[in-house]
Amino acid sequence: MENNLSHYVPRIEELARKLGLDYYPVDFEMVPNNFMMEIAVYGLPVRMPHWSFGVRYIHQLVRQTMGHSRIFEVMFPGNPCHAYLVNANSIAENVLVTAHVIGHADFSKNNQLFERFHKMGGGRIVEQSAERAHRIEAAMEQHGKQRVEAVLDAALALEPHIDLDQDLHRPRYATHSAAPTFDPTTTFVRRFQELTGPNAAAESDDAVHRLPIPPHPEKDLLWFIAQYGPELDPWERDIFLAVREEAFYFYPVFACQIMNEGWASYWHARLLREAEFLPQDLYLDAIKAHSDVVRPIAAEQQTALSINPYHLGFMMWEKIIARDGLEAARAIMREEDDFGFIRNYLDRALAEELGLFVFDAQEDGEIKITSKSIHAVREAILAPKFNFGAPRIAVAELRNDGTLVLDHDFHTDSRGLDTSRARKVLDYIHTIWRRPVVLRTVDGRGAACEIATE
Hints:
By secondary structure, this protein is an alpha/beta fold.
């Protein structure tokens, strides 16, 4: 058996293009398992330093030690794409991973959501994140690690709170509306100026046409604080905008996870199946790895209480392609995210075949099935994806004394807040805003309340 992955990569890429896949070039790099874990936990090969990533690393290490999580690859969309493979994996596993990554690359180039955020961000996330990390390390040397970490605490606590309907690079608000014009020759205008004087008229116009800040509820908390923080230093503003830019980059990955992993799994299975140049024993080992990837539940379990996105996405794409053809599937891949994909293409028959249900976990540990309705199943799958799973908070008002007023849109997300956690986040914001911060919300019982910093 040929044991050099480089022997197979160009042949798999050639086959992929022959089958119609269209993707940016992929830079493959072999790395040790500990470095792969760091990439998976940090989200990028080089990223801003923060204690929370260390906590995630320990969590991932424990899971892997217990056999609950194994990382085969990490791929970053862009032009070129960057893919990291574990050098301790078998040649068969890395052949499968190569085909899987090519499926991801095809998806990320052609999906409209990925394309939009790629254009805004520039497609160089790996290099850009490394540059930001170096700037933050320089800020730590200049201003002290404790002070910089406090800013990172606040920015990362607000990471989900961006406005995805806005552009990544957007201007500040207009400060004044256009003033109406008057004919100075009219009797009324001449008489008014004689009574008040021209300066009074100008002052009146300025007061009337000055716009409030914000002029409408502002959901992008990272952007607002970076632009309007009353005492924010340039390096603090830079950190907020860096966290915001990375949140924009990661959103398509988050919002298309089921589609994307399913698409990559479909294509790695098809590429392996049609790769006649693969030796038989390598092919069989790779197919075994494929079965592990798209398995619905852990081997020792009879029922799964969470969705494996690889399995669900793979099964949905197989059904769509078998029924409607590859071109129809590519049209869906281009136009949808997970919200449209699940609502429009997860039908009752497939949900029943996969044994999907909605459940409620009781305090005593008992699991109770509450619904098998296709509508309930769809919404249960999508619920954690709304607004990154975070409550919807918007800046409602910036008062004259600098008080920042936030509103929780509890009518939309239909839930109260954990007031202790909300207060902790407000404390983070207060550290940076350096003025009072007020959050208007409801408590766990649905009663209106205000949480304010002291």
